[in-house]
Amino acid sequence: MQEHQIDIPSQLKLWAETLGVEESHIVASSGEFLYKQWREDLENSKYGYPLQPVAQSAYLEDSLGKIIGNFEYKKRTPAIFLTHDVDYLNPTYILWLKKAIGRKKFSLDCFKDNFLDSLKRYLEVDKNFLKDSGGQLFIPAPRPPRGFKKYLIHKLIDPSYNLNSTLGDAFYKIVMDYRAEVGIHGSFFSLENDGNFKLEKRTLEQRFGRKITFNRQHWLNINSYQDLIAMHESGINFDSSLGWNGTLGIRGGFLRPYPILLDKLKVIWEIPMLLMDGVLFDELKLSPEKALAIACDWLQKVAMVGGCVAINWHERTFARSYGWGETYERILEWCKKEGFDFYSRQDIEQRIKEHEGKYISKTN
Description:
This protein is α/β, with parallel strands linked by helices. The chain has 13 helices and twelve strands.
């Protein structure tokens, strides 16, 4: 596949403007090195897992700030975007198998869980922190990919519920009752050439009766400009897939929304995904107290630069067999004490217009 060519000076100019500098002059050699780092973060991953050491700091913000000498952006109010990937509406044997292998514990307790009640508990928590609307849900409408091998992988790892089933109707009612925001949770192979992403998005828009402009790929499976272009061509203006599976770190060099230039006239906004429940508890195997402490340490970095990041707790993890919901509540309480704002979709869009996108006309 031919490498996607980008006007690097124009991209760097957009990134400098994101930090609040209307006119910027980036040293070419320094700028190209920074862009190369960012591109490696995008491309050097497999299924959302890093293929290189991950950054522990917002290297693009830090370096651009030093080059342009403007730190007004650090005075912005820090914020977190409250999001939930909705992978399952009820326990399934495939989920049980994945959970058992990951935890090396073959317990049937998860079949006693009520995932919709778990989701409602998260939305109740979000309601206490958000101003006017519910939390952001990333919802799948997966379609099977072409090819036997891909089909098997799809059956193993993609969500499998039917939005038009009885359970889907109950889920729909929860979304409406809590005024939750709807984004697409694109299936694992959906951005490849078979065009399923566009069809999945259309299915969601028809089911929920609204235009969808936000995406997070399942398994954070994004690693190319072609993925970003496919999203944008399907009507996505905001993505929150650039985070890491398996470890903690900053993917993309920013702790705030930033524009990714796709061509001379098009950008897609990326909202960095900094914290995810499965990474803290399943992959790093942290206790609730340790997970809370580490999450707050990372969010302190966001506070120091007036940043804005997404956090992601899955729909089912307030249930008893997981028990991760209390940590989510405690993280939000800590953020409240530290002066954070709490964002839904419309708040993110407003912030970008007023701050990160203030000097940028290409906000789509």
